[in-house]
Amino acid sequence: MHTRFCDVFGVDYPIVQGGMQWVGRAELVSAVAEAGGLGFLTALTQPTPEALADEIRRCRELTDKPFGVNLTILPAITPPPYAEYRDAIIESGVRIVETAGANPAEHLPVFRAAGVKVLHKCTSVRHAVKAEELGVDAVSIDGFECAGHPGEDDIGGLVLIPATAQRLDIPIIASGGFADARGLVAALALGADGINMGTRFLATREAPVHENVKRRLVEATELDTELIFRPLRNTARVAGNAISRKVVSILDEGGRFEDVRPLVAGARGRAVFEQGDLDEGIWTAGIVQGLIDDIPTVAELIERMVAEARELIEGRLTALVRG
């Protein structure tokens, strides 16, 4: 289970825990690193660049293996101080960054000068091609199955991954719909160099969220998500609950963002993770929850995936070729 992605980013296994708002904290990220994967702290989970530097230090106290920081760049009336978060990452000695959201061109020269490798998250082939032209070191390509923002093209991973692989020369991480060894082997067969998992890592012992959230992921099926903001062309896949269904209803009936703003406030989503009231706000979850049936430690999850992937490749798939 060693690919060129492992060589570029210095990890044992091509398994990535992407940045997740309110979730990408030191206890989860360090566990992924210790298990041989690549974990990302989420910069904007921290209220200030100084708090991010503190979280990086806390993660280093828990692991001496490589980990990164996610910097998601989104348009806003009053945007966070992205450059200050970027500088905190560099000054803390982190050498791997996951960028997402807007075009990272403004930040790439600074990261490159500091020797930081950049993995950029995309939702389309055209954006992945552009990211490679800009000079990122790898891309994470998100299929329509993913939690969070899948873009507006609605292309699933079965097509999106090979379509991207045949256009790019840099490593590709497949994202959206991955939870186990079957997905890992399938992604490699489709041309990816590894996989990214968010929802699956949310249902682990180390994930810093309420147990109610983890149990809901085990109980839920692939049908239990909602696509909100579709009429606004800012689609997001979130867990199905009273709030997300209400948001869908309001917007489908012609409502505007201002009409749902109080329902989708980030503070309410954070409260779900911290307090465990699953209907308090919206929270992201992918359709892959239909494949989650336990809450293991991160080490148990990664070790199981790697072992079962080897068995699939060396056993069932090899037998099919011999047959």
TrEMBL record:
It holds the Pfam family NMO. One of its GO terms (molecular function) is nitronate monooxygenase activity. Keywords: Flavoprotein, FMN, Oxidoreductase. The keyword Flavoprotein applies. This is 2-nitropropane dioxygenase-like enzyme.
